[in-house]
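User: As part of a screening pipeline, I want to sanity-check one entry by hand. Below is the sequence and the SMILES for S-adenosylmethionine. Please return the complex as structure tokens so I can compare it with the automated output.
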Amino acid sequence: MEEKKTVNEEVMKEAHCQRFDPASYLQYNFDPLVKLDGNQSYLPWVLSCYHRAFAQGDINGELLVDIGSGPTLYQVMSGCEVFNKVILTDFLEANRQELRRWVQDEGSSSLDWTPYLQHVCKLEGRGPSAWTEKAAKLRKAITDILPIDVLLPQPIAPGAIPSAGADCLVTSYCLEAACPDVATYKKALSNIGTLLQPGGHLLLLGDLQESFYYASPEEKLPVLTLNEAQICASLKEAGYTLISLEVYTAGPEERTWSDDSTASVFVKAKKNERIKK
Ligand SMILES: C[S@@+](CC[C@H](N)C(=O)[O-])C[C@H]1O[C@@H](n2cnc3c(N)ncnc32)[C@H](O)[C@@H]1O
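Assistant: Here is the complex for your manual check:
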């Protein structure tokens, strides 16, 4: 009889260690010709969510930390206009290397982020040629690219970020890729909360009713299937107050593309001043 492998934390980690290739993930999921200039509206929606969140004026401070950055940069392109310091993090060294290659600007990145930078400049009311300034600003703001494991009570090595914590965390599609069940998801939210100042903001981008995503056309990686109520309840129990939640429902042409989710959510929450036990 075939042995059934239960999806646990180690299985989720192994899936990324063995089967996640940064270049394939970027080429398959972030080709700007398809994602920004094609007939898909999902990534423009994501970029506008981040843009609006940082333009509202209530999210500010010194340090922004991105949790589980993967090999991507779109999620910090608006935040670097507000925060002088941005720290990127990921579980995989290959992803951290990919990010370092972009920061070092040696022309060896697996994806040209120019169309994304131009798109965000446009949202900010600047001409597309302002993208070079934005790229320089983002490169200057990224002060570190750190290893992280959201499943640990102390997800980042002690002393790697200031003890006061970040003023804002962003995280996109990381927690559901790391957690095998809702209890662990809740724990991961509270683990990353230790990196955030009380009263600091969390911007979380995730998928609804997803069970896998394509890391490349050949690699389907498992993710935790979540609904809106589970995300909201987990945030509350992990010590955050929900401020807003936006839902994007994918059109039929987008559904078969990168995963089996029915919709995406963009959540803005605040870490409670005092966590109730
Ligand atoms: C679907 S990718 C998302 C990448 C990127 N944030 C994005 O928006 O495209 C999931 C990411 O979660 C990371 N990851 C998986 N398990 C993790 C863990 N235990 N702690 C931190 N990151 C983890 C993977 O290395 C991968 O980069």
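Points to compare against the pipeline: The domain at 9-271 is CATH 3.40.50.150 (Rossmann fold). Confidence is low (pLDDT under 50) at residues 1-5.
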